[in-house]
């Protein structure tokens, strides 16, 4: 009996990972991932909105700055929302707060994509993590079993901005 060789295609995420460069720019790296821009271009844009040239940046990275940066690239952001049910709470695309410490109220940001198929019934969820893990397998986590090791605490939903109809 002849066998047909199978070739498994590795998972290709919609969003290309942009790695963070220091301990304070994970949110900007996640925004760069969502917008398809470089980290440097997002940082320069944030500096025009009042971000200092050197970190720490956390006093300036609030929901308003995140929304402004995303809006400049045709995306709409919700406000921060708590994830009481984990990934089940999340919309199709979200900026997620992971590795969250409730006592310190700090965490780091990554990008979640449910990746719902065109049939609307199946999905292949994944997280693109900008953190510079030594183990590159942690940069992209695919499937609910893999995501279980990186539970979300908070999220900002992200959608495409509606096109304005000319008058």
Describe the structure.
It is a single chain. The protein is α+β, with helices and mostly antiparallel strands and 167 residues long. It has one domain (26-160): Cathepsin B, Chain A, CATH 3.90.70.10. 19% of the residues lie in helices and 22% in strands. The chain has four helices and seven strands, in the order αααββββββαβ. Strands 1, 2, 3, 4, 5, 6 and 7 form a seven-stranded antiparallel beta sheet that branches. Helix 1 crosses helix 2. The longest helix is centred in the first third of the chain and has 10 residues, at 26-35. The chain starts with 25 loop residues before the first helix and ends in a 7-residue tail after the last strand.
Provide a compact summary of the structure.
This protein is of the alpha+beta class and 167 residues long.
Number of strands: 7
* CATH architecture group name: Alpha-Beta Complex
Average residue-wise pLDDT: 90
Structural class: alpha+beta
Order of helices and strands: HHHEEEEEEHE
User: How many DSSP H or I helices?
Assistant: 4
Write out the CATH superfamily name. Cysteine proteinases
CATH topology description: Cathepsin B, Chain A
